[in-house]
Amino acid sequence: MRKPLLSLFAAALLAGAALHASAADLLQTVKSRGTLKVAMEGTYPPFNYKDQKTGELVGYDVDVAKLLASKLGVKPEFVTTEWSAILAGLASNKYDVIVSQVGINAKREQVFDFSRPYIYSSPMLIVRRDDSNNWTSLQQLKGKKVGAGQGSVYEAQAKAVPGIEVKSYPAAPENLADLAAGRIDAALNDSLLAAWLLKTTKLPIKAGARVGAVERMGIPFQKNNPQFKAALEKALADAAADGSLTAISMKWFGTDVSKAP
After folding, report:
1. What is the pLDDT of residues 163-179, one digit of tens each?
2. Is residue 166 left, alpha or beta, with left meaning phi > 0 and alpha meaning psi from -120 to 50?
3. Does the reported pTM lie above 0.85?
């Protein structure tokens, strides 16, 4: 769902190109190791975050990663990193895949292979509870301060509108805390995140309007791994067919967000 600049990891890709030409397929590496190294932000509820009581990673993405690792016959090994560096880490082979709401788009597909979408959502404004502006488009926020995740598609969408002052954040909690405190006028984030926040947060905020097209979220991994790609696609297809992916979706959202609207 986010869009870091390709320059952040282009050098790493060039450095690793020769290695990938002769390296074993990622599926063989994962099977031999016995683990699938999965990167996620770890601060992005309800998708991936740490439970306050146990300290364990939980969320929709976590459950999906565990399910897919199981179907691949290995265990998940989670790595948390700030969103702004997560794709660069994948380009540098710090992990095998990212399961952290990564939007599928043409620029990213030039660099990485993607799985089929495993979740669909759309951009949504989040505003203070006492806000009566009723904004219905980003164009109406010209002259206002809008918070968004650093390197995210939401940041790019806000910056594409002349006149919006965009403030970037490493994670959603800081963004929403500034919104509640009045340091920004609105936040732009995921519609599913907004719905979850309304049920769980004590901050004086509320969901605003949806202001963009539906986003497709997939799982990126290094190119030139056809066996891994086929195995991952089969795992996702099986998870959709046997109802396990729907069950995870219902658990976290009360609706099946794994299917296109």
Report:
1. 999 999 998 889 999 99
2. beta
3. no
**CB burial string 248-261: b at 16+ within 10 A, e below:** bbeebbeebbbeee
* DSSP notation for 28-85: HHHHHHTEEEEEE-SEETTTEEE-TTT--EESHHHHHHHHHHHHHTSEEEEEE--HHH
Give the residue carrying structure tokens 């994670």. Answer: 171
Q: What is the DSSP letter of 139?
A: G
List Cα–Cα distances, 41 to 56, 121, 191, in angstroms.
Answer: 13, 18, 18
* Region 135-146 average pLDDT: 97
Domains of the chain in sequence order? 6-120+216-253 (3.40.190.10), 123-210 (3.40.190.10)
DSSP state of 5: -
Structure tokens at 181: 């405190």
Residue pointed to by tokens 């292979």? 113
User: Higher confidence at residue 44 or residue 146?
Assistant: 146
Euclidean distance between CA atoms 171 and 182, whole angstroms: 18
Range of lowest pLDDT (30-34, 178-182, 193-197, 255-259): 193-197
> Rounded distance, CA 119 to CA 97, Å?
16
